[in-house]
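Minutes, project check-in
Item: structure for the 494-residue chain
Input as provided by the requester:
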Amino acid sequence: MDRDPEPPLVVEYPGGEEVPAVAWPMLLRRRLGRHVRESDRYRWWVLWTALAGLFATGFTITILAVSLGDVARDLGASETALTWTVTGPFLALALSMPLFGKIGDVRGHRRVYLIGLAGFTVATFLTAFAWDGTSLIAIRTLGAIPGAATGPASMALIMRAFPEEDRVKAMGWWSLVGAGAPVLGLVAGGPLVDAIGWRSIFLLQTPIALVALIVAIPILHETPRLARQSIDYAGAVSLATATVSALLGLSVGSQIGWAEPAVLGLFAAAPVALAMFVAIERRAEHPLLPLRFFTERNFTASLVAQFTSNFGYMGGFIVTPLLMERIFGFTVAATSLAMICRPLTFSVSSPVAGYVAVRVGERRASVLGCALIVVSMGCFALGASTEMLALVFGALVLSGLGLGTSQPSLISSAANAVETENLGVANAAQVMVTQIGVVAGIQVLSTVQGGGSSTGSFTVAYLVGGIVAVAGIVGAAFVQSADRPARLSVAEAA
């Protein structure tokens, strides 16, 4: 391995004398980075570093959502308007993630990751000083754009560090932190908000993100770049228009009505923009998202399974707190504690599922996980109709176990279906599809439930989620497991 040259530095002292000196911070950073990259466990160093960034960017999501009342009172804004502090970042992610994934493939994923995490850190610090509802929404939404750059970049760095047959293990740990960070944020952030105020969660998040950035600088190694390849900005704009139109229509439609002209216009714009995207990609010399990806069985099947399973999972997640409060009489605090068991099950089962998938294959693991989500929706529906609390708790555990079992296999299968140099945009496509499934599930099941207090409304909502989630089983059944070297046995000496 070629060694980086040591950083020379010449210092001029008074009198004109020049004395050689050593740039110690740069020297230590380079030597640490070289030591880590030459280690046999370098791929695990990359994984832990990327997971630190994932934790730093994700642990405030839940606590902000449940603290909107406090935020609204402090800023003199309405809770309804402040829901855009959650919806706005979703739209920003959908708008920018495919573009950042492609830029990482072309310019280098380490660079994109570091710049994105630095921008997110600054935006997080500024969020703590928002002066009204509009400024909070604007800072949160704009801050999500550099945050969106870290997702596909970090996943591409991990995928490049791990061989194809072991990527499912890495995605198991990825899922653990992705699901566990909001849980820890809720547990630790709740008392912090009560004692100090909502701004404290962002003042706490800032140094955590800064530490993740400082750790990443010496450890992460730049990925190979695609030489002389232009960025397909026209494709990025058309895909962003299609995605944002669909998500915005779902978000606004549940608030003002599905038959309103504005909502119908958004839904009409989505397929038109999508058709434009397909036409642009067919003519583009270097397309943003090569359409041939969708001819790959594992890529398309995994995306179908991820969309539909997240539709049921998150749709049920948003309806269940209402069920526990209105049917079973839980307080808000008791509901929050009860709901933790699902993401906790998800985070614990994900790394285990990654290692199990290496043994049994990604197809079996993903089919089992998607089937558990469908069963959980049935248990939710039965628990709501019969008012059996035990069934509801069982369904929470089953749905967390189901998504935790399926996600590592589905993510790694889609990544393994594309060339290494296209991992950034492929991973961005996965995250984008997942986000659309999340928003669609939340809005559709909330609309079906209708905000009422009858057991029938909850039962129907869960059944709708379960029916959509069945398609996840079908998609997972088409996934082909990765080829792995046969295990060798050593015969006893004669």
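Outcome recorded: The chain is about 75% helix and 0% strand.
No further action items on this chain.
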